[in-house]
């Protein structure tokens, strides 16, 4: 800064005028000024940042972890559904006559996950009163195939279908 007496500039006014000018400093002095400047974080600011970051982490981390764990559930459901449908198609493929009554267990491992379940084939009668199929001990015109598959953390997936008697097969009425 440079101080000039005011009367040297103008005779009308008495006082002091401060004229500011910029001078360049050598790089070493500028670097030292940056190191000793008061810019930066204080201890209180650092603690506050840590506390706020910790609170945000405590809120969002469990949500993120839950979404990662449940991200594979649709794939697990779809695989269990596929296995159940495959078992039903096997029974449909052999037909009413060759589909043996009883219960069969299934166990399949896909991508490191084990799916277990059972396939129940039984005679059923159609009730026109309540429009449903009811289990029968004797031979009827229908068999129900019910498949239940259980996988990793999904509960039970159940599918069923009705196999009608093969009328074109002469041995089907026995």
TrEMBL record:
<dbReference type="InterPro" id="IPR012902">
    <property type="entry name" value="N_methyl_site"/>
</dbReference>
<keyword id="KW-1133">Transmembrane helix</keyword>
<keyword id="KW-0812">Transmembrane</keyword>
<keyword id="KW-0472">Membrane</keyword>
<protein>
    <recommendedName>
        <fullName>Type II secretion system protein</fullName>
    </recommendedName>
</protein>
<feature type="transmembrane region" description="Helical">
    <location>
        <begin position="43"/>
        <end position="65"/>
    </location>
</feature>
């Amino acid at each position: 800064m440079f101080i000039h007496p005011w009367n040297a500039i103008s005779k009308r006014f008495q006082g002091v005028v401060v004229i500011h000018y910029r001078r360049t400093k050598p790089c070493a002095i500028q670097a030292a000024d940056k190191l000793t400047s008061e810019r930066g974080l204080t201890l209180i600011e650092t603690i506050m940042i840590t506390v706020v970051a910790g609170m945000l982490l405590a809120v969002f981390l469990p949500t993120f972890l839950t979404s990662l764990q449940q991200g594979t559930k649709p794939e697990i459901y779809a695989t269990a559904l596929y296995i159940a449908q495959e078992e039903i198609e096997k029974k449909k493929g052999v037909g009413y006559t060759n589909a043996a009554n009883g219960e069969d267990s299934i166990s399949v491992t896909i991508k490191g996950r084990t799916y277990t379940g059972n396939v129940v084939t039984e005679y059923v009668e159609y009730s026109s009163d309540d429009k449903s199929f009811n289990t029968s001990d004797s031979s009827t015109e229908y068999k129900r195939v019910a498949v239940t598959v259980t996988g990793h953390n999904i509960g039970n997936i159940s599918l069923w279908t009705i196999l009608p008697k093969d009328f074109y097969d002469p041995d089907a009425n026995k």
